[in-house]
Amino acid sequence: MQSSKQLTEVIREWSEVFMQRSMRDFKRFMDETGLSFSQVNILMRLVHAGITSVSEIGGQMGVTNAAASQAVERLVQLDLIERTEAPDDRRTKRLALTQKGRVLIEQGIEARSKWIEGLMDVLTSDQQNMIISALTLLTDAAQKTKE
Amino acid sequence: MQSSKQLTEVIREWSEVFMQRSMRDFKRFMDETGLSFSQVNILMRLVHAGITSVSEIGGQMGVTNAAASQAVERLVQLDLIERTEAPDDRRTKRLALTQKGRVLIEQGIEARSKWIEGLMDVLTSDQQNMIISALTLLTDAAQKTKE
DNA sequence: AGATATAGTACACCCCGCTTAACTAATTAA
DNA sequence: TTAATTAGTTAAGCGGGGTGTACTATATCT
User: Fold this and answer.
1) pTM of the model
2) What is the pLDDT along chain B (147 residues), one digit of tens a residue?
3) What distance lies between CA B80 and its chain's CA centroid?
4) For B114-138, what is the HEC assignment?
5) Over A74-118, what HEC string results?
6) Which of A91, B3, B88, B140 is paired with A39 by a 20 to 30 Å CA distance?
7) Other CB atoms within 10 Å distance of the CB of residue A1
8) How far does the CA of residue B112 sit from the closest CA of chain A (Å)?
């Protein structure tokens, strides 16, 4: 397995470069929107979950329901998420992104995409095609192994 | 340019999946280490910069020197970074990761790498090789365009 | 040498997000 | 129907991390 070592090394370098960039972009996003790490975290989870509840948010983030409730309240004030009573159990709330919230988070994803697209500019179209294939494989694999 | 549209779409999906995962791992890392976003941010910058100063940290993070100084102080207390007088200009401090700090942040990068390595398990070796090539290209491009 | 600028720190103060604890309202169990 | 449970909110208090200001110590300009 001679290529195994190289694979590890290649991935490590990519991870390092990408994490660094991720961190920078993420901080920029927080500064621009004025949102905290927790707030962005909640919005991202809502993108993925669609509709969820306060305690589910709290559970996923590893904080108390009180904390989750407060965080949700702030985001409702900002008109980024919508909080309505669940019809079947009026104790629980249905949380969903508002249009404004969705646009905001999409912009964050867009920014990250744009960066990678920019990297493509210095590559040949053969190389670009290979990267398309590779990322497609990785994305599929990630979605499959998502527990 | 028929492949141009697809390229955009592939990158967008990858970005979304990866950001979501990034966020989760990053939060886990902060919880495990007990470090804040800012603190991890500083450590990451030190990994990249090697040796730097308090005001450089402040400048990069967009905070005042006072804030940077306090943040550095906390990390020094935790024995994650080392603060010594610069020999040429005794006003400035040389900031560097300690062994402990370096190990910690390497573990973070390692965790991210391990995730991608895990994705490889469901792929053929041909596919793996293609991904190696693709990530190598992307890493190189990223380092080249790093302003 | 004396004035000015620069790097970093100390302090007072403020905001944010967390926790615990007490509470309300709705649901389920006896 | 009453008791117990569950979902969520509210309030008080704490700590982290930010600012502005004042300060110390070193370096630089004239």
Assistant:
1) 0.88
2) 445 558 899 999 999 998 888 888 889 999 889 898 999 999 999 998 899 999 999 999 999 999 999 999 999 999 999 999 999 999 999 999 999 999 999 999 998 899 999 999 899 999 999 999 999 999 999 988 865
3) 15
4) HHHHHHHCCCCHHHHHHHHHHHHHH
5) HHHHCCCEEEEECCCCCCCEEEEECHHHHHHHHHHHHHHHHHHHH
6) A91
7) 7
8) 6
Q: pLDDT-derived band of residue A22, with 50, 70 and 90 as boundaries?
A: confident
* CB-to-strand C under 7 Å, chain B 78-97: 83, 89, 91-93
The predicted-structure confidence for A25-70, as pLDDT tens digits, reads as follows 889 999 889 898 999 999 999 998 899 999 999 999 999 999 999 9
Of B19, B118, B119, the CB nearest to A109: B19
Q: Which residues of B touch A118 (CB under 8 A)?
A: 145
Å: B31 CA to C19 C1' = 16
Q: What span, in angstroms and rounded, lies between the C-alpha atoms of B16 and A57?
A: 19
Q: How many domains does chain A have?
A: 1
Pair of tokens at residue A145: 């192994």
Specify the CATH number for the domain of residue B114. 1.10.10.10
Q: Which of B56, B42, B47, B32 is nearest to A27 (CA)?
A: B42
Pick from B12, B47, B123: which is nearest to A137 by CB? Answer: B123
Please tell me which residue of chain B has the smallest CA distance to A19. Answer: B109
Contacts of A21 in chain B (CB under 8 A): 142
CB pairs under 8 A between A and B: 157
From the candidates A12, A26, A115, A123, which should be mutated to test the interface with B, based on the most B CB atoms within 10 A? A12
What is the biggest distance separating any 2 CA atoms in chain A, rounded to whole angstroms? 60
Mean pLDDT score across all residues of chain A: 91
